[in-house]
Amino acid sequence: MSASLTDELFNQLQGQPLADIGSQLGLSQSQASGAVAAALPLLLGALGRNASQAQGAEALFGALQRDHSGLDIGSVLGSVLGGGGQGSQILGHIFGARQQGAAQGLGAATGLGSDQAGGLLKVLAPIVLAFLAQRMFAQGGNAVAPQLASNDVSPQLLGQVLGQEHSNIAQQGGLGGDLLGAVLDRDGDGDTDFTDLLGLAGSFLGKPR
Known about the structure:
Protein name: DUF937 domain-containing protein
Shape: globular
Helix content: over 70%
Structural class: mainly alpha
Pfam families: DUF937
Strand content: under 5%
Number of domains: 1
Number of strands: 0
Order of helices and strands: HHHHHHHHHHHH
InterPro entries: DUF937
């Protein structure tokens, strides 16, 4: 793929969508841009981890096909900003018991605080799923994963695509990779390392976005 799923979705949100997200959350466009750039790897990386298990891939595939297929990002964003989209429920499926840690980690890393960061994740979660459904079902397997040379859309393909995205995010590091590793239990003991999360804030706030 010439661009990662994370980069592709971020590019689709440039302009008015980012302005609308920022307005909803009380952020400037530059703040919204930086926060979304940090949040998308977290969401897509967590989905990749979930989809690495067969049951997780099948559950996500079914949800995309049933609830998110045929939706465009603009209409989903409009619904979410109007109070729809079921962002909280989607985040519960994505992060499970780590949902609060994800919001706290994103808030610490971006300087937004956990409330605004949690609000951003709720806005983005339905958009991410609509984007994945569009890529899988509207454009077919070759579009979402041309390197696999297959047009068969299946839970297995979804798991492969998201697993590769997770690996790319983790390997690239940076804010998105560091945040993903911290929230999804970097030390392996089942607890989020909040020291790591708080340490990310300085690197985010100290760099222009």
